[in-house]
Amino acid sequence: MVRRFIQHERREVRDLDGVWDFAFLGDVDPDRVDPGSIVFDDVMAVPGCFDATPGHAGGRGLVAYRTRMRVTDPGRYRLVFDGVHHWCRVYWDRSPVREHAGGFTRFFAEVEDAEAGWAEVVVLVDNRFDDSRSPLHLDYFDWYHFGGITRGVELHRLGEVRIDGLRVLTEDVEARRVALAVDYSATEPARGVRLTVECGGRTVVDGSVDVEASGRIERSFELPGAEPWSPSSPALHLVSVRLGEDDMVERFGLRRVGVEGARLAVNGEPLTLRGVNRHESHPQFGHAQPPGLLVADLEQIRDLGCNFVRGSHYPQDPLFLDLCDELGILVWSESIGWQYPAERLTDPSFIAAQLAHIDEMVAAAVNHPSIIMWGVLNESPSHEPENRPAYEKLLRELRVLDPSRPVTYASNHVYEDLSLDLVDVVAVNCYPGWYEGGLADIPGELDRIAAHVDGSGHEDKPLIISEIGAGAVPGWRDAHHGMWTEEYQAELLRTVIEHLDEGQDRISGLSIWVLGDFRTTDAKDMLLGRPRSMNDKGVLDEYRRPKQAYGAVRGLFARER
Ligand code: ADA
After folding, report:
1. Which residue from 51, 139, 404, 464 lies 20 to 30 Å from 21 (Cα-Cα)?
2. Where are the beta strands (DSSP E) in 150-236?
3. Could you tell me which of 260, 177, 162 has the C-alpha nearest to residue 213?
4. Percent of the chain, pLDDT > 90?
5. Are residues 84 and 207 in the same domain?
6. CATH number (domain holding residue 220)
């Protein structure tokens, strides 16, 4: 797994990324597969998406991955997966140790008593759409659901007491005080376990604790003189925790996100967000994001003059978030979703799956100072009364897990929305000049949205346009500047940005739809409006080659304001 800091100085961690054995099993029930009888006749990169490779392009079905490793020290181990799509079952030496549904989030598979010798890990991965197994992934979403072990895998050696996660939240920026929570588990309750915390070159906690089978230890400490984090000065600090024989390191920033004068603010400084939506999709790698691609995407995001990225429509790669922390790029992190119907939103098993996914998203990303808000349920029917409980439950979960950040959802029903009172930030997806009206209608529509939000009692909340854009087939130019031309897209985005910069200051945030073109679903209804099977609203094409709109946006975002 590639990160920008080492997460364990003492715990033995083995990186399992590389090339694993692979078998495409096809339309097979995983319950009928014996992991010992699989014929592994192929190889596959981990991380990677098997269905983005030429040999398996577009393939849907059950697949199997296998790797082997030498275990010298018998005992307890943990496999850490940073993302598998959509459903998987993990076997350690042919015994099932974990099932997981939903890509884009980290989960663990615990191995309680590994024997010394060669060990075998087999992962059955299923990228078929199956309501009962993978309720979060629906086949009509406007992006292609690639499958595979899409993010890194590690094997951790564990002892009697282990740290399962750290949360470092800023309690008070001025006092430089942070609150630390150490989530742990233990084989047996134990007394007097040594706890030390080092931060900024100092020991800030040195003591001992009694541990139960699992629990949370909370401490707060001050870091006199430590530099706060802000977009213009993204200072980061490492905290290193030791509990018994185990350890974990996290990186964090001292900063407070709040609202000032109906704008989002970092450390009391109101923000104007200018950015893009970003999908983790690439023709050759699918959802897997090689480090070189993440670095290149961020070079273009910065070159465009953006200070903001909406991670549409699922949690982004941990390395991407590390880089945003370092570069001072602000991030909206949201749980997976795209126009879920009421049948889903009112189904308790769907809500349970969303809650589990939200818990994983927050656990893996809560310490990134770049994340300034959490979101849920992109463009779902927030205007239908029966869906309000779903919004209540998911947003409440976010607030409980992390009281320090604002919460939101992107609404495409702003005029009839029934749940905006539940959010801290009003976020509106709209497509004037594309799905309805022409270029001339854009300023009026943006003004109407702002007036409606204020008129319906949300005048104190930040208002952002979380999506707006137009399709452009790469290289398609035409003297008429008609729809699908690069010229039309560039003119539309220019009209939007100029109006927000010069005419409409109630709207303090913008994330253009979208940074790069990306493959969409195979559902025919969608494909009829998606030339090349791509969502062509990128200011870059799918290989990140700039369209005309890139230059237009860059000229406006990067200018002095
Ligand atoms: C919606 C949706 C996006 C994308 C976009 C479009 O706003 O949230 O994911 O589908 O429309 O291109 O139409």
Report:
1. 139
2. 153-158, 161-172, 177-186, 190-199, 202-211, 214-222
3. 162
4. 99
5. no
6. 2.60.40.10
Print the domain residue range for 135. 13-157
379 in ligand 1 pocket by Cβ < 6 Å? yes
Q: Is residue 506 part of a domain?
A: yes
Residue 537 CA: which ligand 1 atom is closest? 12
Question: 200, 227, 255: which is the final residue of a domain?
Answer: 255
3-state SS, one letter per residue, for 528-560: CCCHHHEECCCCECCCCCECHHHHHHHHHHCCC
- The neighbouring-strand residues paired with 184 are 163, 215
- CATH code, domain with 417: 3.20.20.80
pLDDT digits (tens, 9 = 90+) for 113-156: 999 999 999 999 999 999 999 999 999 999 999 999 999 999 99
Residues with Cβ < 8 Å from 439, sequence gap 6 or more?
Answer: 433, 491, 492, 495
- Best mutation site among 428, 535, 537 for ligand 1 pocket (most ligand atoms within 8 Å of CB): 535
Domain count for the chain, please give it.
3
* pLDDT at residue number 113: 95
Model's pTM, two decimal places? Answer: 0.98
Q: Check pocket membership of 535 for ligand 1, CB cut-off 6 A.
A: yes
- Sequence-separated (6 or more) residues with CB below 8 Å from residue 206: 195, 196, 197
**Judgement on whether residues 133 and 173 belong to the same structural domain of the protein:** no
User: Is 216 in the same domain as 138?
Assistant: no
C-beta neighbour count of 440 within 10 angstroms: 10
Decide: 142 in ligand 1 pocket, CB within 6 A: yes
Same domain, 222 and 370: no
In the reported structure, the alpha carbon of residue 526 is separated from the centroid of ligand 1 by a whole-number distance in angstroms of 11
Task: Estimate to the nearest angstrom the gap between the alpha carbon of 51 and the chain centroid.
Answer: 21
Average pLDDT over every residue of 69-83: 97
* CA 530 to ligand 1 center in whole angstroms: 11
16-44 pLDDT per residue, tens: 999 999 999 999 999 999 999 999 999 99
Check pLDDT > 70 for residue 560.
no
Task: State the distance from the centre of ligand 1 to the C-alpha of 142, rounded, in angstroms.
Answer: 7
Is 383 exposed, middle or buried (CB count within 10 Å of its CB: 0-12, 13-18, 19+)? middle
| Whether the Cβ atoms of residue 310 and residue 332 lie closer than 8 Å to each other | yes
Residue 424 CA, ligand 1 centroid: distance in Å? 22
Q: Give the pair of three-digit tokens for residue 219.
A: 């401490």
Assess whether the C-beta atom of 417 lies below 6 angstroms from ligand 1: no
Considering the domain architecture, whether residues 485 and 374 belong to the same structural domain is answered as yes
pLDDT at 559: 80
pLDDT digits 0-9 by tens, 187-235: 999 999 999 999 999 999 999 999 999 999 999 999 999 999 999 999 9
Statement to judge: residues 132 and 29 lie in one domain: yes
Atom of ligand 1 nearest to the CA of 520: 10
Q: Is the peptide bond before 514 cis (omega within 30 degrees of 0)?
A: yes
| Same domain (yes/no): 38, 62 | yes
